[in-house]
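User: Sequence in, structure out. Go.
Assistant: Echoing your sequence, followed by the structure tokens.
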Amino acid sequence: MKKKFLLLPLLMLVLASCGPKGDSNSDPSGSEPSGDPTSDTSGDPSSDTPSDTSGDSSGDTSSDTSSDPSSDTSSGEDDEKQEIDPAGLNAILGFDVYSLLPKIYSNNYLVDDWSSTSYPVDVYVDLFDWELADAEAYELALSTSLELDEENGYVIQDNLYVFIYLDDETYAPDEVFGLNIYSIAEPAEKEEIDPTDLNTALGFDVYSLLPTIYSNDYDVFDESSEDYPVDVYVYLWDWLPSDVAAYDAELALSLDYDDNYGYIIEDGLYVFANFDSNFEIGYINIYSVSGGGSVEPEGLLLDDGETIVLYNSSQAAFSSEELESKSGWYANNDICNFNGNDQIALSNDGVVIDMVGVLGSSADYAKDTTLVRNASVSSPTETYSASEWTSSAKDTVSNVGNHTMDAVASDLIISEYVEGSGYNKFIEIYNGTGEAVDLVNYSVTLYVNGSADSSSNKTFEFSSLLVI
């Protein structure tokens, strides 16, 4: 969604670390892929994405407020807060939404409408005289009157949510609490791309030899070089891993496959589809190699004594600079969205070899804690035993990315599990086998509330990180 949640379990307070309203960001990764675009297409890597906070609106201030936000943000510590006038809020929503919410008390507030194509309802109520105690009290009122959707906030009605945020940028250096009421637009059905630029880059109608490509937000980049006479990327900004998997299945039905090089378009010309978890985009690469040879895919090897870490992209334990300096760390919000009663499994070739938590139980076993595998444990086990782990306080992350083991391991193990504040979620995998291990057949599965059959369960295949 468009906001980063910071869930404080002790307070059950939903905060959003949000930038100035109306601020437009670039592509999902924060940087643009290299390569010269052959031309503009229907997508722009700097266009809005579902994580954008601004949407498409110019940000009209659509309601009266009790005072000018540029004035003193305190109405006086001894002034009792009065109930706000909900007329402006209701007018923006088009119905009496206020009657569905706990009463809001403030003497100094501002209602802004930032509704857009991506967020048909996107209304902010900045509450300049709120302190932490006010936010806590209102969160408690929300929690007793509305159901919580951990992905989106409190549910007012179908596809209409509310949460409390803390804005530390719009009115900097002041920090302002507020409420965001919003809805999410249904994703548009993907349409077939215009293949003109792709065919132009290749110099012939290569698209006719491929399965149909569907996307509403894409770019064609030509990165051909002396070593790679053909090296063309189709970046698909609206693709998810499931779209990549579906297209790979289409490729498998229409083209022959070489285990070393990918799908064969014609002699010396290859194609593959992949998902870049760092940029959060899918892409299709069509390439050839100088001299008519091919490039062998680079396997995803985890060296002996090294770890691989999955983390939630909205975590607040490490700065972006720290994350950029780390090798083998991958953002994965599907897996790293667990609570203390969800289970994490590591599988090799589809068979569970290691488990954190007891499958079939929804009881909390690791809530608000960090679990580190004891150095004496050198073998994975599909049966969780708390005695194999050392527990530390919530948000203890000093050891993430490092692990020690007393003996040579029989296989990879889950070596650390962090269930911290908000989205501070980390899973660490350690290789202590004495040799490098190719992760291509390994996967991690999140079992929600202990259920093996829940539709909310997620599986991450390490093969999706494979670079060809």
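User: And one key feature?
Assistant: Residues 301-465 form one domain.
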